[in-house]
Write a structure and sequence with these properties.
445 residues; 6-stranded parallel beta sheet; globular; 33% helix; OB fold (Dihydrolipoamide Acetyltransferase, E2P); 3 domains; Rossmann fold; alpha/beta
């Protein structure tokens, strides 16, 4: 039996593809190992969204090359999709470069690699992995559910359309079938991901159908929580807001990456939205769900960003008061329009602006957390003492630490928030009564 290890780099969408890879391996009698030194073959599922991610992928590959017992190496994911042909000669140690569309063919690819072949499986117009079994190696109560591939937005800084191609929604019945399988394996929370979840359906149904998909998923009896990531402000429709506010399983939480607030910078980014559009979307969401948790991400140091533009962003953040904010320092990427814009911002100034923004947001997040002190929240436990509420997406937001007690991982209970810990986290205790039950989520009827 061939021993295979899988290394995952990058975002939640890559994690889903790695779970497809693991599912195919398991179904075809490969032995899955975690120890790279014991693997005869290693599949590296890469990211190359920004230069730093590409470098991390290359460093990981070279680390495998330097192992005393060098395994066969297959490179999958964004690096393979974007750079396979140029890396073919630069990395002769790599046995195969594959795209997500090749995941279902992995058993054949692996056998050919073991037999001594070197393969480049990079078809044009990659269609994604299709319907495949999934296997998670993580003992967590949540799973990411990818509802689309690619992106039709043409932001001037972004390589995703170059790597992944145009937006392609998965059929609704395929998404629901995968959700059922995940829930049957004990998952309690499904987290919808795509490059733009709110565009779901426009390509294959001729209209935005995220609200209808949410309703279909909310009917699944085993599902407890349903969370939406990667939304777009121009597509926060009244119908979507209504479904979020009325479907009890759909969490009052939304990830709304905005990237900037200065009209001049947003225009240079070719975002197709504006701070005014975002503000109206946020007002609509908060009117329907007053306690909704909102997350956003922003880029500092974009070409041409002046101090006035940056101050406009800080003022916007101070006014909106997002629960959670992530920030990135602009990175010029080959093939993107922004890389060729004049007035590139020096790295030192990017660093200074990044730290100033995060320091301001840290105080805002602490205040947002503080509003929940003394109140009870339904919490899903990831370990015996660490959990999350509806306000916290895994891996990117804060955590809730249970003090004075333990609960089974995967269980849900109402916990009382008692203090803020290091700005981003909360300390909680069991209420002073037996068998704390899950209470209704704020903002949902």
């Amino acid at each position: 039996m061939i021993k295979v290890a899988v290394v995952t780099l990058g975002c939640a969408k890559n994690q889903v593809d790695s779970e497809y890879i693991l599912g195919v391996l398991q179904n075809n009698q490969f032995e899955i190992v975690n120890d790279l030194n014991k693997a005869a073959l290693v599949i590296v599922n890469t990211c190359s969204f920004i230069t730093a991610a590409k470098q991390e992928a290359l460093d990981t590959i070279m680390g495998l090359v330097q192992l005393e017992r060098r395994p066969y190496i297959i490179v999958a994911g964004c690096l393979a999709q974007q750079h396979a042909r140029e890396l073919w000669s630069e990395l002769p140690e790599v046995a195969a470069f594959i795209t997500p569309a090749a995941i279902g063919r992995l058993p054949t690819i692996i056998k050919r690699v073991i037999a001594g072949e070197r393969l480049l499986d990079i078809p044009p117009g990659d269609s994604g992995p299709g319907v495949l079994p999934r296997l998670s190696r993580e003992s967590v109560p949540y799973a990411y559910l990818k509802i689309a591939e690619g992106c039709n937005n043409r932001c001037s800084f972004c390589t995703i359309p170059l790597i992944k191609g145009p937006y392609r929604s998965r059929p609704m019945e395929s998404v629901v079938a995968e959700a059922r399988a995940l829930l049957a394996n004990g998952v309690k929370e499904l987290i919808l991901v795509a490059q733009d979840t709110t565009a779901y359906g426009i390509d294959c149904y001729g209209e935005y159908r995220l609200p209808q998909l949410l309703k279909q998923l909310a009917r699944l009896p085993e599902l407890k929580w349903l969370r939406i990531l990667y939304s777009y402000p121009t597509r926060i429709t009244p119908e979507l807001v209504e479904v979020m506010a009325t479907e009890a399983k759909v969490l009052p939480y939304l990830d709304l990456p905005l990237q900037h607030a200065s009209p001049r910078i947003i225009k240079l980014m070719q975002r197709g939205d504006s701070a005014e559009i975002a503000l109206k979307a946020i007002e609509r969401l908060r009117r329907a769900m007053p306690e909704i948790a909102l997350r956003s991400t922003f880029i500092v140091g974009f070409p041409g960003e002046r101090e006035a533009d940056y101050q406009e962003l800080l003022d916007f953040l101070a006014a909106i008061k997002f629960d959670w904010v992530g920030a990135f320092k602009y990175s010029p990427e080959a093939g993107t329009r922004a890389a060729y814009l004049p007035d590139q911002v020096p790295d030192e100034l990017k660093d200074e602006r990044y730290h100033r923004l995060m320091e301001q947001q840290q105080a805002i997040t602490r205040a947002c957390n503080g509003r929940w002190l003394g109140r009870e929240l339904p919490v899903i436990m990831e370990t015996s003492t660490i959990g999350r509420s509806f306000r916290q997406a895994p891996e990117v937001d804060g955590l809730i630490y249970l003090e004075g007690s333990t609960l089974p991982p995967g269980s849900m209970a109402a916990l009382k928030m008692v203090r803020v810990h290091e700005n981003y986290d909360l300390i909680a205790r069991l209420p002073e009564r037996d068998n704390a039950a899950v209470t209704a989520l704020p903002g949902n009827s």
